[in-house]
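Sample pair:
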Amino acid sequence: MLGLLAFLWVTIGWLGLAAITACSLLALVTWRCFWPSGFTQWAATPARSVWRAWGYRRRWHAVMTIADLAPFYRGRIVVPVLVKVTSTRYVDRVAVRLVSGQAAADFARKADNLAHGFRAILCRVRTARSGAVVLEFVRRDALAAIIPALPIPDQVDLKALPVGRREDGLPWLVKLHGTHVLVAGATGAGKASLLWGLIRAMLPAMRAGLVRVLAADPKLMELAYGRVIFDTYGQYAADPASIVAMLEDAVADMQARAAQFAGHQRDHTPTRQHPFTVVLVDEVAFLTAYQPDRKLRERVVNALATLTTQGRAVGYSVVAALQDPRKDVLAIRNLFPDRIAMRLDEPEQVDMVLGDGARDRGAACELISTDPAVGAGVAFVRLEADPDPVRVRAGWVSDTDIHAMAYQIAEDTRPVELEGVPGWPT
């Protein structure tokens, strides 16, 4: 680079060099302003990756040695190989080829050492393939500030519903079609915003008749605030007897749909005749553990177990939220392939929700701040297809946002039918 600059200086003089520099800067600024996605993909990300790679390579040997990750073998130090660095505004992903005999767990135990050694906020270890790992170094916290509720989308993808932001700055997309989701978090962790974020992301499909939501709200708090939405495009139930009846009706409808599909189709596509059905249960522990009527408890567990074991292929999804993740509170938690853990009270609860080893892989849910401005909506997600937890934050769906959604529903419904219904906007 210095040689090229010297050659241009001699060939065209400093005025020509200044003109070329100014034109280049103007082109980059124009590209950045009018085509930001292309600029990020083809210019910013490669340049950032090259710069960060130089920094990692400069410190690599020293950090590996001091962190005791470079073993001594046959009279020499063998250092893991830094393969590639890919950087975003928030996260660096460093691909590493391990020394023979090393494991990802060796790096996980030294995650704090690595974070300090490379001057990052924190480090997480991701499994890649046999003999390799990916180190994720968080440089900036993309989740530090409250995220406003995301706009209601024009098109709905039930396998990628936008509800917030990931730690690497990318949108947080939640899959509902073809799976079931368990959400766990202490009081004030932000479960309500996540549930309303899902409803918000599905609203156009609900209005089109392709999605219906069956809302069970035993606390009579969060979901009741927008009850008009469920009364219009699904069903709402609050007392235990009504909830049990709604769940058992859903089981009967699901089994009737399965009998109709048998021998004709294996996958479900939402239609007005066979809409995708989301069974949304807020504070499921009240129904499965704290409900004093033993028979009602058993009926709820049986209905949820049937829906979670048989419903995926025919267009049924269960989304259950709870505060206490213990096994005796929700015995069927293993039937939920995808898990979301918000702030929890104890470190042991992390693996109860996300599965064994999740906390060792960086899902420190008990360390999420209790300050709503900092920690509300922050969570770790572990999907059926990926054992590595990902840190995310749900957008905050405020009372005003819920009222706005209810008002939008009012455009499709006669006011006389909604008068006196809880959640009707005034």
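The chain has two domains: 42-140, 161-418.
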